[in-house]
Amino acid sequence: MSGEILSQNEIDALLSALSTGEKDADELKKEESEKKVKVYDFKRALRFSKDQIRSLTRVHENFARLLTTYFSAQLRTYVQITVASADQIPYEEFIRSISKMTILNVFEVPPLDGRIIMEVNSHIAYAMMDRVLGGKGVSVNKVENLTEIETRIMSNLFENGFENFQEAWAGISEIEPVLTDFEVNPQFLQMVSPNETVVVISLNTQIGETSGMINICIPHVTLEPIIPKLSVHYWMQNTKKERLSGEVEVLEERIKNSELPIIAELGGTDISIQDFLHLDIGDVIQLNKPIEEPLSIKIDEVPKYVAQPGKVGKKLAIQILDYIKGGDEDGR
Q1: What is the reported pTM?
Q2: Domains of the chain (ranges plus CATH)?
Q3: Which residue intervals define the domain Flagellar motor switch protein FliN-like C-terminal in the entry (predicted)?
Q4: Under a CB-based contact definition with an 8 Å cutoff, are residues 295 and 264 in contact?
């Protein structure tokens, strides 16, 4: 009645209630005719469509693959990073959902306005640092006591890793991520207003025996200029253009590297087989073209140009004078 699908047990219970008089058919019709009211929370405004969320998920799936390759090379151990979820929530809710002591990397992404947060679970961060320093990748949770050296190692590791973000977003926008802040307490980080809608992409991360989450928080205000590009139509159209452009470039490159035989024909003549068999060194063959006439230049046996003979340094050469009309299919 409200568009919901009932189970067989619910159907049996409803029929039983009608037959025993507990439910009246007229009452059911009345409930059907009543206006249904849907509760809307203005503090939790949905500003991204499902289509746009899917596009963001696709971008970050590529980012996760790039991060997996990067961290595997840097840490020299088993690393697996995958997209767990992509949700739009108020910024205040995101801040409340993460640990009080965690690793917060804040990036600017010019030419887009605003900043992006890369929040890394402390267990994951310490496992990474332990591997960088030559350990087995053991996690020790002591974020509040980070030394300057530990802070520098972590910030450099995540800053270099976030450079892959630029490659992942290349099909939508040319951005240049720059690390601007490094925090361990989310309460000290007021990036946007509490009710501002943000997209949070959560990445499942496995570093050796240690697992945890990496969260990417992107405010709506940052993505607003490029939101139309997040549609599937734009994505597919752009992918098709890139594919065609790439194919054309490859074809042009192959054509440019193709080799064609070029012949400068001085002239021609007809002789008998008898004369040909008696040719000897020093014999002269008279050609059918006067020396003052230009030469015919053939490319792959097709006459294309007329030229005059000459020399460049000690080498014989020809100088192109003109095209031969009708020398190819387009009439040139």
Answers
A1: 0.58
A2: 8-38 (no CATH), 44-241 (3.40.1550.10), 262-323 (2.30.330.10)
A3: 253-324
A4: yes
